[in-house]
């Protein structure tokens, strides 16, 4: 019987590295366009693979670095340090402002929870508002020339009183009773809830404000009246309140002419005593009609309101404060500063006044009539924790909570204003505490559980303008407890569209996305990136991608920028150091990694191998052919290894040859490459495991394709070869495996892989 052979040719690698479970699903489109391993490659528009870019060293810095644009084309780098400090650098990497460690509360393990937004002030000024757990928001203020730092402070009115939002925290029946209507008063509550942290907080009694100056105990405080408080008023009714005209204690009474509103405190004969609860301090007028929820009447006579307010439950306290906690998330949209993720009101969202980002007066303090410009305070339906609010496609805002997603329609006919906020649910799947990012018409976010990535789409349907779709269901093994998302929003060095998921283990999952008509076309292709350094943070502004990385041996923390012209990480031009990396007096160009080893390249992509560095940071010459350590294009850095392992399809169905039940032999594997500077074929042990035998993944056979062939001049860059290379693995296995390993720095594109399999 003739041996049946099957040759498979793969030129499409667009699905990247799907989950290993599909390795026997030969007919699955992701199997046909994917591979068992794709590490440190990027997927091209043509669906081929190219070695991933290296990273250029910008400056030394630990922890987390973001970039902010303060004016058109003017950028600064914000570095949040592991110890609770802050460093601000200009575009050259030079430090322009700092805050020492322990100034703020964040630390290495909590840096991911910092949320910041920028607010423009005039033509040159920008404020960066920084929110973090259990800390008052901090303001990094840029005036067009210099930076300054101060805690968040509410805008004040003409009398110097903060314009704050209010909320009722106490139980409904708890009353508040001031001892007077002006000046310093003693305020007694009917149930305990005051703490020392309330000093400085505002309360609002019947729509009028007071500020706490001292706390005596859990029920009693001394307060200073900001707005004269309303008093009690006795009025004589035109009809005795009985029968159909009966008025009960606690009823709300409204004057139809004066507009005065009060709460019924007592009824005796025709005399009704009310506590005024709105801004009509003069009270009810004689001769006017009044209404209650159940009846109507009239005022035949009145007494002037007195100065002894009653204990009533119509009161609120400052919504965000030292007593009630500070927002842990912020955003800026519709010319309003917004806050959410409030510790004690997790379902709340606050928006400032339009064009007044620190004015959060949402209730018309001091008798002002609310307008469309006023601040807004809203609660998301249900007991949800609002983690993030994201300005999205078509002006709408998207609300990401721990248990559901909503959008707030905003357009020319329904602008964002008090009373207009409507929460429309998108999905009952929640969001993880990883800040979502916008990518063209998508919003990308991590789903609760930290194991998958979804996107909000805007396909343009009239009745369902937004939809949610999964992006990583076929690649979830690459998503490992994500720390942050980074999404380029413009072309930089290539025009493919990728987004980056930083995992907690320091590796990166990179997805290539094709967007068409507001939707994702097909299934995104995912690959894994890693290196000798562990990535702590990724940030993007436009198309520029920054990586905060830490390395061991020697220990050093750096900020690096993705650079398609480099084939090393931590890459630096040895003889033309960046300004921020200038060597100290008497030190060499690699002063930051003394007594260690570095890889060198020159002339673009000529590999020179590993070089030792002395204790002062100077390279130790090896005197090899073509060595010139003074070259202007000499690059030092850290190499990384790229791995490609194809799926090996089974012999196809047909006449019985025991195709799916016998071990398979991978007779030959061939790879067609472009711009190749050498790589290694490896046959990998795939089992079965036996005592004393090799372990799964051990290399059983290796063939190196060199960068230089015999006769090539090794003092010049290796020729960029375009040809087919092949290998004949040995043995039969149920799951034969072979890898292509790029373990030396330099270019490599994979255009086609062919496998010949027999049974």
Structure commentary:
With 759 residues, the protein is an all-beta fold. Among the domains are: 5-40 and 642-758; 154-165 and 320-431, no CATH class; 232-302, Elongation Factor Tu (Ef-tu), domain 3 (Beta Barrel); 435-530, no CATH class; 564-638, no CATH class. 1% of the residues lie in helices and 43% in strands. It is built from one helix and 59 strands. Strands 1, 3, 4, 53, 56, 57 and 59 form a seven-stranded antiparallel sheet that branches. Strands 14-26-17-18-19-16-15 form a seven-stranded antiparallel sheet, with no helix packed on it. The longest helix has 4 residues, at 29-32. The radius of gyration is 34 Å and the shape is elongated. The mean pLDDT is 93.
Write the layout of secondary structure elements.
Layout: E1 5-10, H1 29-32, E2 35-39, E3 41-43, E4 49-51, E5 54-60, E6 64-71, E7 74-80, E8 86-89, E9 95-99, E10 115-121, E11 125-132, E12 135-142, E13 147-151, E14 166-167, E15 176-178, E16 184-189, E17 202-205, E18 208-215, E19 220-225, E20 232-237, E21 252-255, E22 261-268, E23 271-276, E24 289-291, E25 296-302, E26 315-318, E27 329-333, E28 336-340, E29 348-351, E30 376-379, E31 386-391, E32 397-401, E33 405-408, E34 424-427, E35 437-439, E36 442-446, E37 453-457, E38 467-470, E39 482-486, E40 498-503, E41 508-512, E42 515-516, E43 519-520, E44 525-529, E45 534-541, E46 544-551, E47 556-563, E48 569-573, E49 597-602, E50 606-612, E51 635-638, E52 642-646, E53 664-676, E54 679-684, E55 699-705, E56 721-727, E57 732-733, E58 737-742, E59 749-758
Antiparallel strand pairs: 1-59, 2-52, 3-4, 4-59, 5-47, 6-7, 7-8, 8-9, 10-11, 11-12, 12-13, 14-26, 15-16, 16-19, 17-18, 17-26, 18-19, 20-23, 20-25, 21-22, 21-24, 22-23, 24-25, 27-28, 28-29, 29-30, 31-32, 32-33, 33-34, 35-36, 36-37, 37-38, 39-40, 40-41, 41-44, 42-43, 45-46, 46-47, 48-51, 49-50, ...
